Amino acid sequence: GAGVSQSPRYKVTKRGQDVALRCDPISGHVSLYWYRQALGQGPEFLTYFNYEAQQDKSGLPNDRFSAERPEGSISTLTIQRTEQRDSAMYRCASSLEGPYPGGEQFFGPGTRLTVL
Amino acid sequence: KQEVTQIPAALSVPEGENLVLNCSFTDSAIYNLQWFRQDPGKGLTSLLLIQSSQREQTSGRLNASLDKSSGRSTLYIAASQPGDSATYLCALPSGGYNKLIFGAGTRLAVHP
What is the reported pLDDT for A102? Predict the structure, then answer.
């Protein structure tokens, strides 16, 4: 059974480079979320898609971060001009239902980003 | 603003003990609450989801309860095993679009 997949699993990059993180949700899932998790903390919300529409990007820390889900399935989180403080685990989750009332979220394995 | 706190932060127990992990939240107007397990290098595995109308949910040796009025949920693990060693996170939707607010987790170590 296909769960949520993310690629790459690990990404090491130099400060100033752009990175693109991919999320492939469970087939048919309407909702897609991106979270970021620092060591020793729980994940923190970044952005939310309902099909292809980005309905909430309030958690994106600044304008170097952007995300898209052009066909309502695969999503890409892009970080431009990476900085060391961007180093974290980036997690994607999908849910079968729309946002209200909201259903169970299923998470992928995450992408560990390290910025040198 | 919803805040989620998990106590204890870490727990080390011998195999066979029954355990209680605590999760508290500040805003009782919630739709549901989810418990997750996190293993190093792996994703978050959903263990239990309790709807706001429910008092508890059970899955195998796991039982989660929800008391909205007091802003608390507990995860009860019966007869713990070394394979239960992981970080346990609780999360609940807040602020619209079902985005989850997580606690910092409880790191559990069960030793033989």
Answer: 66
Looking from the CA of A1 toward its CB, the CA atoms found within 13 Å total 2
What would the pLDDT profile of B20-55 be if each residue is shown by its tens digit?
999 999 988 888 899 999 998 778 999 999 988 899
Chain A residues 44-73 with a CB less than 8 Å from chain B: 44-45, 48, 50, 55-56, 58-59
Are B99 and A41 inside 8 Å of each other by CB?
no
CA distance B22 to B72: 7
Contact yes or no for B98 and A105 at CB 8 A: yes
> Virtual CA dihedral for A17, A56, A95, B84, nearest 10 degrees?
60
Query: If DSSP codes are grouped into helix, strand and coil, which group holds residue B29?
Result: coil
CB A23 within 8 A of CB A32: yes
Cα separation, A21 vs A25, in Å, equals 13
Give the integer Cα–Cα distance in Å for A107 and A100. 19
